[in-house]
Write a structure and sequence with these properties.
This protein has helices at about 30-35, 35-40, 75-100, 125-140, 155-160, 165-170, 180-195, 240, 265-280, 285-305, 320-335, 340-355, 370-375; strands spanning about 10-15, 20-25, 45-50, 55, 65-70, 100-110, 115-120, 195-205, 210-215, 250, 255-260, 260-265, 315. The chain is an alpha+beta fold. Strands 2-1-5-3-4 form a five-stranded mixed sheet. Strands 6-7 form a two-stranded antiparallel ribbon. Strands 8-9 form a two-stranded antiparallel ribbon. A hairpin with a 5-residue loop joins strand 1 and strand 2.
Length: about 400
């Protein structure tokens, strides 16, 4: 057949899987129903689906032929879906048991999970916590689906006001290195403390290679400042020098919530910082930075988090206004991510997330702020610690 013609829509739809197989099922069936034949073949529980490059819930109806990819709990987006589902489940169980009291989900814990607190009543007793767990398990056993419904903003505001979720209503009214490198660093430290000259290495991110840096000599009374993701690793400093060190752990631990049930993830703030900095200083576009992000996070779990308790002090570098300052800089970068890519889904999620923050001009950011490391314009950029 070489010509086209009008026909009645077929009652079935075809789904093309990443492995080359094709599924066929009723047009308009949900993604979860259509993916049922592959559910048992997946390495982890199915929690979502990517349809033509867009992340969708399992209740999403598929009405046209599509390229689909199952999303499981072993995927980054799948883990995020699972955490959000647990948050909804917790709130549903809490509301059913404790009525007018409110539950606030505050921040993530380094050991896993979230720190939550209750308002409008005394803290939960061990017995009440056990009852809350039992109610959550009862709801899980019912196997009730999460359903998505779009409603007018005014209707949503009224709904949340009636339930006492005034924060939600108010929101809607606004719409790794090698051992060689470690050995070299230890040698450099010993030579500096002995009063010798040392040529520092410098990594050129745009060229992708190490280059010779400044030649320095430690002067009387000066300190050596080492900065980097491996800073707390005990292998970084020779044992003979470790007692002379003072270790500071600087991390952006975001403590903002969009509302009582929706926290601002520290990971999102850090990724947005990195996208802006990489585009300005390293010549990376947002697609490249997003594609590397999971590798960065794996490196943190290996080389940072195991050693964070070695720090003498902890410094929280998160700023309450930084997402408003970063928004005008990162939005154009995120909009350049090509549709249909895995990175596009993440860029779309971040763009939707940033809509909750009103933008501010970057000139309002102090010129000695740590945020200037990412947006540029810091007066500390050319600061010299090595006197003559």
């Amino acid at each position: 057949m070489t010509s086209s013609r009008f026909v009645e829509p077929s009652p079935v739809v075809e789904l093309h899987l990443p492995d080359g197989r094709t599924l066929q099922g009723p047009r308009g069936a949900t993604a979860g129903e259509l993916l049922e034949p592959v559910r048992s073949q997946l390495a982890a529980p199915l929690v979502g689906v990517i349809v033509n490059g867009e992340l969708q819930e399992l209740t999403y109806p598929i009405t046209m032929e599509a390229r689909v990819r199952p999303v499981t709990m072993s995927d980054v987006d799948g883990a995020r879906i699972y955490r959000r589902s647990l948050t909804f489940l917790l709130q549903a169980a809490f509301g059913g048991l404790f009525g007018a009291a409110s539950l606030n989900i505050d921040h993530a814990l380094t050991s896993g999970g979230y720190f939550c607190n209750v308002a409008g009543r005394p803290p939960l007793t061990p017995g009440e916590i056990a009852a809350l767990e039992a109610e959550m398990r009862r709801l899980v056993a019912l196997d009730l689906p999460f359903t998505r419904r779009e409603v007018p903003v005014a209707e949503a505001i009224t709904h949340f006001e009636k339930r006492g979720f005034h924060d939600k209503a108010q929101l809607l009214s606004h719409r790794t290195k090698s051992m060689l490198t470690l050995y070299q660093l230890g040698e450099h430290l010993e030579r500096l403390l002995a009063g010798e000259q040392v040529q520092l290495p410098r990594y050129n991110f745009q060229a992708g290679r190490q280059e010779p840096g400044e030649i320095i000599r430690l002067q009387a009374g000066q300190l050596i400042i080492l900065e980097g993701i491996h800073g707390l690793n005990p292998r970084l400093i020779p044992p003979a020098l470790a007692a002379q060190s003072f270790q500071v752990y600087a991390s952006a631990l975001t403590q903002l919530n969009i509302d009582r049930h929706n926290r601002v993830a520290t990971t999102d703030t850090r990724l947005i910082r990195r996208i802006v900095r990489d585009a300005r200083d390293r010549g990376y576009n947002a697609t490249q930075t997003i594609s590397r992000w999971e590798s960065v996070r794996r490196g943190e779990k290996l080389h940072i988090f195991p050693y964070q308790e070695n720090a003498h002090v902890m410094f929280n570098s998160a700023l309450v206004y930084e997402l408003s300052a970063l928004r005008p800089l990162v939005e154009p970068l995120l909009r350049q991510v090509p549709p249909g890519t895995l990175e596009y889904m993440e860029s779309s999620r971040l763009l939707a997330f940033l809509e909750w923050f009103l933008p501010i001009e970057t000139e309002w950011v102090p010129d000695n702020s740590i945020l200037r490391e990412f947006i540029g314009g810091s007066i500390l950029k050319d600061f010299k610690v090595w006197g003559v």
